[in-house]
Amino acid sequence: MAEFVYENDRLLFTEEMREEYTVLVPQMAPYHFEYFVSAMNSEGYKAELLKTTDYELIHEGMKYSHNDICVPAMLVIGQFIDAIKKRGIDAHKVALIITQTGGGCRASNYIALLRKALKKANLAFVPVISLNAGGLEKNPGFKVSPRLLHKLHDAMLFGDLMMTLVNQTRPYEIKKGETDALRQTIDRELEGYFQHKTLFSWHRQKRVSKKMIKRFKRIPVDRIKPKPKVGIVGEIYVKYSPLGNNHLEATLEQEGCEVVTPPLYDFFLYTFDSRAYDITQYGGPKKERFLLKMFIWYVEVRRHKIRKMLKRSGFDPGVAYKKLKKLANGFINHGTHTGEGWLLTAEMVDLIQHGAPNIVCTQPFGCLPNHIAGKGMIKKLKKHYPESNIVAIDYDTSASKINQLNRINLMVSNAFRMLEKED
Amino acid sequence: MQKPYRVGIDIGSTTIKVVVLDEENTIVYKTYERHLSSVSKALRKLMRDLKSSLGSQAMRFNFTGSAGLRLAKHIGAQFTQEVISATSALRHYAETIDVCIELGGEDAKIIFFDGVNVEQRMNGTCAGGTGAFIDQMASLLDTDAAGVNELAKDYEKLYDIASRCGVFAKTDIQPLLNQGARKPDIAASIYQAIVNQTVGGLSQGRKIKGRVAFLGGPLTFSSELRKRFIEFLNLENVFMPNNGEIFVAIGAALEAKEKPISVDDIVYNIAEYRKQYKDNLRKTLKPLFKDDTEYEAFKQRHNQTSVSYIDPKDYHGNAYLGIDAGSTTTKCMLLTENNEILYEYYKHNRGNPVDIVKTALLEMYQNIHAGITIKHAFSTGYGEALIQHAFNLDGGEVETICHYEAAKYFNKDVSFVVDIGGQDMKCFKVDNGVISSIVLNEACSSGCGSFVETFAESLGYPIEKFADMAVEAHSPVDLGSRCTVFMNSSVKQAQSEAASSKDISAGLAISVVKNALYKVIRAHDVQEEYGTEIIVQGGTFNNDAVLRAFEIETGIEVTRPAIAGLMGAFGAALLAKQESTHAKRSKMLDAQGLHDFSYKSQRATCHKCHNLCALTVNIFEGGKRYISGNRCEKGAGINISYEDVPNLYLYKYDKVLSYRSDDTRTYKKSVGIPLVLNMYENLPFWQPFFEALDVRVVLSDRSNKALYEKGQDSIPSDTVCYPAKLVHGHIESLYDKHPDFIFYPNMPFNFDESSHANNHFNCPIVAHYPEVIEANMDHLDMQKFMQPYMTLNDKKKFVEVAYLMLKSHLDVKKKDLMKAFDQGIAAYFDFRDAVQKEGERALAYAKEHKLNAIVLAGRPYHIDPEVNHGIPKMIRSLNVVVISEDALNHLAQQQEVNILNQWTYHTRLYDVAKYVTTLEHVNLVQLVSFGCGLDAITSDEVKDILESKNKLYTQIKIDEISNLGAVNIRLRSLLTTMRDGVYNG
User: Fold this and answer.
1) Per CATH, is A6-143 categorized as 3.30.450?
2) Which of B11, B126, B771 to mutate to test the interface with A (most CBs of A within 10 A)?
3) Inter-chain CB proximity A379 and B205 less than 8 Å
4) Per CATH, which fold does A226-263+318-422 belong to?
5) What is the structure's pLDDT at B854?
6) Which of residues 90-129 of A touch B (CB under 8 A)?
7) ipTM score here?
8) Predicted confidence (pLDDT) at residue B55 exceeds the cutoff of 50
C-alpha cells in the first residue's frame, strides 16, 4: 500500500502510487482525450478515460457540488464520484487528474471544488493531480517529462486532425458509418504509436498524419448538394464534450449540417500566449515570456506542416494561430483572456470568414467570461458581418433539451435559407 | 385539378392550433385548443375533427412550435421553426413591418426586419415561460388570464417588479399582496414586468421602433399588456393580425411543401409515436412506491403522528391563539392550556390576508363560548406585523422560531426541521436544544410548493388528486431542480414526449425535494450532517409524493406531524402561551370589535432618501395606521433614529462620492467616469489622478431604476449580474453630460493586498465589462470611449499605457503621469485606511453600546443603494451596527484557505469571515448578486469558515428584486439566534 504524503494539507500523488494506482481521466474532448490517455499509459501510468454518460452521474455531481457552480465542474465531479462509487473498483487504488488553467475564471477552482467534493463523499484519500502549465501544484509521482510532453503534443495534433477529417467527411459519406469505422480503426492503431521511445518523432508524426489524411480522402463522398457549415465555439468543456453539450455535434449533423469545431490546440496556445501578454502588459519574468513564445512558435511549425498536407488533399486546414489572433482586432482586445477570452471572438470571425457564418456559441449557464467574449460580441459581429447567424445556448443540467433544440433549429433553418439564396 | 390543401399545425407549450389554407391562401378551416397535458391525445382528436370537416383528402402537413419539434421529426413530417413560420406569415399579411414581438406560453421572440435582412431572437433559458407566468400570477390574484387583463384596466400605480424571470417576479408580488396592495396595480405591474423582461432580454442594442407587430396568445388576448408595450416603447404604429392566436400556424401552412398525405396516415403515425415514446422516455426515475402494500405501510406509519382535538363545548379556561399569515396561506390555531386544539383554520390567501384573518377569527368566535378566555395571541409569517397591528394581537415572532417551537412539541430530540411552504423553504438544524443553523431558500428556489399546486390546477386536478396520481406513477420524469422556470419548461418537454400526468406529478414531487436538498440545504448526506430525528412540515409535505420522495432521497424515515401545514400557527400559539403575561385576557379585538373592523389601504412613496420605498399604508379603525414596504424607520414614520449607529455602507458611499472635482474652477479638460463596479473603490485613485493632470472628473448619475431602464436595451446577456447591467445606464448618463472623453479601464488585476493569496484577479465581469460596452453601445460616439488595459500594481507599466491613451487628448509628459499616479495611489490608500478606521470605530461602538454588529460582506459595488436595495439601512433600523467586508479584513490572521484564493475581493471575504469567528456579538451576512458565478465558490468557503467556529452563515441573494420581506425574515431569524448572546433583546 502506498503511503499518504501531504504537502500543506494536500494529498500528494507519490511515485509509489504511480505504480499502484489507476489514474482516472474525465472525458472532455472525445477526439483528443483518447490519445492523451494512450500517451500517458505508454509512459508507465495506468490511466483510464471515463466515458460514462449515464444519467446518474449528474445526480452525484449535484449532490457534491454547489448548485450554482458551472455545469462542467458539476459533470466532472459527478463523473469521478460516480465512477469510484459504482464500478466496484478499489477506491484506495485510484487517483484523479484534472486540468487547471489558472486564469481569472472559476474553472481554475475546479480542482479545489473536486477535493471538497471528495471530502464530503468520504473519499479524501483519493489523490487529485493537477495538469497545468503554470506550475500551480506539483506531485512527485506525476511529472510531465519532456517525452510525455512531446507525446501529449503529438496526441493533440492527432486529435485536432482526426476531428477535422471526420467533420469534413462524415456528412458527405455515401456509405453510412464508413467514416466512423475508419476512425475506430485508426484510433486502435494510434494506441501503438505512443509506445515509441525516442524523444522527438517529427517524421513519424508527419508520416502517420499523411497516411490518416490519405485514408480519409479515399472514403467515397457526395459533395454535390452543399450542406450549411455550422461552427461550434464557446466555453471549452461544453464546446467539445458531448456530455456537456447534449451531443451537439451529432445533433447538428442529423439536421443536415457540416460541423466545424475549431482545434483544441489553439486554446492551449492561447493560454500560453495570455501568460506572455500579462508579462508584457503588467510585468513579470522576461525569460518565461521568451520560453512561452518559443513554445508557441515550435507548435505552429509542426501544425503548419499538417495544415499544408490537409490543404493539398482538398480539406479545409483552418488558419494559423497568428492569423487567428489577428482576427480579434477591432472586436476585442487581446488582454481579454479570462475563460476563452478573445480566442472565442476570433474563432467566430474566422468561422464567418470561412463560410461558416452559422455558429452555436455554447456556454454553461451563468458563465462569466462568455458574457463578454461570447454573448457580448454578437451584436458587433452582426454589424460587421450581416450574414452572421449566431445562436447562444446556455447549458445546464436542469435546462430542457427541447428549448435548446428549438433555438438551434432556428439557427439551422436560417442557415439553409442562406444557402438557398446563394444558389 | 385542385391543388391539395396546406395544413399548418402549431404545437406550442400550452395549445395546439390547426389552420388549413386553400390554393388562394384563404383559411378554410381553423381551430385552437389547449392540450393540457397530452399533446398526442389532443392532436389526434384535432385530426379527427379535421377529417370530419374536410374529409380524408390528402393534404400537405407542416408542423411548427416547440412541442411539435420531436413529434414531427419522429413521424417524418415537415417541420418549420416557429419564428420562421411567424416571419413568413408576417411577410404574407403585412408588407412593412419593422419589428415583431411574439409572446407564447413558453418563449418570447423578437424579429427585426431590416430590408432583406431578418434578425430573430429568442429569450434565454432563464427568462422562460411568459404565458405560464401570467397563468401563475392569475392564480395568485385568484382569477384567470382574462381576469388579470380586466384588473389591469383599473390600475393607478405601477410597482417595480423584478423582470428577470417568473420566480423572481413572484417573490416580489407575493409580499405586495400580503401588504394589501391593490390588485389592479399588481396586475398592471405584472404586465410591466413582462415588458421589461422582453425589452431588456431581447432587444440587445436594437431599438424597437417603427411599425411593430404583436403576436401570440398573451398579446392577442390582453389589451392591457399591449398598452404597456405601447406606452413603454412609445409606439405609434402597431400591427395586430386578425388571427393573432393562429398566426404562426398560418405561417406553417404557407410553408407547407411536402408530399400530401391523408389525415388517417397522420393519425396513425401519431399513435405509433405515442406508443414508442411511452416505452422510450429518457430521464426517468424510479417509482415512488413499488406497489400498494408499500404505500399502505407508508401511510400507516405516518398516521401515527397526530395531535389531540377537543370540542370547545367540553373546555373551560384559558386559550392561546396563533396566527400564521404565510406567503400563500393563512393559518390559525387556538390551543387549550394542555395544547389541545380547540379550533384550526387553513386557507389560501388569494391575496388578502387581513380579510382572511378577519373571516377566520369571526368563525372562531362563533365556535367558542364565553367560558373560554383567549389569554394571549401571537402572529407570525410574512404578514406578522400587519396582522398584529390590524387585530391588536399581543405579539409576534419570526416564523423560523415558531416552527421550531412546534417541531419540538412533536419530537423533543428533533435534530433537523425541514419546512416547505408554498413560497419558502426553511430548514434548521438543532444542536443541544439550540438552533445551530438556519437555511432559508434564496429567490431562485422559491415558489416550488405553490408551483406544484398551480400546475395541478392548470391541468384541472385538485392538488390532492394530483398527489394521489404521483403515488401510482411507474416512471417519474426527471424535471431538473434549478427553479420552477426550468421545471416548467422541462414539463413542457415531457408532455411533448407523451409522458403521463402521473409521471409528471411524481417527477415534480421529486424535483421539489431535490431542490430543497441539493440547492437549499446543500446536503450530501443528510443523516451524517443533520441527524435522523427529522421533522418535515409545511403545506407542501401534505403531498404524500413529496414526503415519500424526501424519504427516498435521504434514506431516512421522517416525522410528518398531522398538522404539517399548520405548524407555524401551532408554534405561534405555543409561544403565546409561554410568553403570556399576568393580564387576564388578550388585548386582541373581541367578537364585536371584529364585526366593526374595517380598513383601507393607500399607496405612497417615501421621499426621505434615495431608495424611494413604495409604501402601502393600511389605515384601520380609529385612524391607526400600519405602514409596510419601508426599509428603515424613517418610512415607518417612527421617531426613533438610528443615525448614530455606524453603517459602513453609508459611510463608504458618501466617502466615495466625496471624491469630486472642484466646481468653482475651470479645468483643461473633462473626463467622464461611470460610477460602477470597481469604480466604487477605485474612484479615490482616479479622481485625484485626473485632478493632478488638471482634468475635471464628471461622474455618472446615481443608480436608480430609471437609470437602469435607460440602458437596458443594450444589455447583451440577460444572465449577467445586476451591477453589470447597471453599467449601460451609467454610460448613457455620462454621454448626456458631454465630457471631452469617457474613461472606463479594463482591469484584469486588482491590488495585490495580501501575501497569502494565490493571485489578485478581478472577476471577469469587473475586469472586462468595458469591452461589452464598446461592442454593444455603438449608438454612442465610441471615439470618445477609452477602455485601456491597466494595472495599478506597476507604476512603470501604468504610465506607459496611460501615456499612449492620454497623449492625443492632453498635453502631458510621462513625468506628469508619474506624479499624478503617486498622488492617486496615496489618495487611494488614504481612502482604504479611512474605511478601515471607520470599521474599527464601528466595532468599538458596538461594544461600548452593547449592540450586535453584522458584517455585511459583499463587494465594493454593493454600497450602491440601487444594488443593495437599502438592506444596510434595514439592518441598522433593527439597531444593529453594519460593517462592510473591506473595513475589517486587515485585522484577520493571514492564512490560506481551502480553495484557490485568487480574487482580491474574495480574499477580503475569507479574511473577514475568519476575523468574525473570533468576535462575540458579531455575525456575518454575505450579500451575493444573482449571476455571480464566483460566489458559488466563495459562499461555500465562507460558510465553512464560519461553521467551523460555530457561527451561523446567512446569505442574501440580491438582484433587481427590491422587496425585502424574505430578507427581513432571514435577518430577524439570525438576530433571534444571537439572542443567546447578550445584547439583542
Assistant:
1) no
2) B771
3) yes
4) Rossmann fold (3.40.50)
5) 92
6) 102-106, 108-109, 111-113, 115-116, 120-121
7) 0.89
8) yes
